[in-house]
Specification:
Helix content: under 10%
Shape: globular
Number of strands: 10
Number of helices: 2
Strand content: 35-45%
Structural class: mainly beta
């Protein structure tokens, strides 16, 4: 069941709301970028995401195939969300679950996690090792 969640960057310049199913698997990836930033995301359709404040405060980073935009706050550096268009799932917004302001630690602990092997472009399989993710 979807829940309206509010989120922000560390300094509060960037704020958003999203309809997130906290029972749906969240995602952890081992690609070169996600590994370095310890990405933990919930994917939602673009229609379920709304940027409330801070559009002008966002920087954008793209790499590799450049299909995904990784946004960060220009003031505090936190990455609250990203946007992409995957050949497997279509358009999406990846919400950093660490940026959700009104989701409790207990709720975060219950989030199911799917590990994907982005490093080897094996998006439907977990990496051989995932304890460090």
């Amino acid at each position: 069941m979807k829940k309206t969640c509010h989120g922000s960057c560390h300094c509060g310049a960037v704020r958003f709301t999203a309809e997130i199913d906290l029972a749906a698997p969240s995602l952890r990836c081992n690609c070169s970028f996600c590994l370095k930033v310890r990405c933990w995301a919930s994917l939602v359709p673009p229609a379920d995401f709304r940027l409330l404040a801070g559009a002008a405060d966002l920087g954008e980073y793209r790499f590799g195939a450049r299909r995904e935009s990784h946004y960060f706050c220009r003031h505090c550096g936190v990455r609250p969300f990203g946007r992409g268009d995957s050949p497997r799932i279509g358009p999406f917004v990846g919400i950093s679950v660490s940026c959700l302001d009104d989701v409790s630690a207990a709720e975060l602990a219950q989030l199911p996690v799917t590990f994907v092997d982005g490093r080897h472009d094996a998006w439907d399989a977990p990496p051989q090792e995932c304890r460090h993710l």
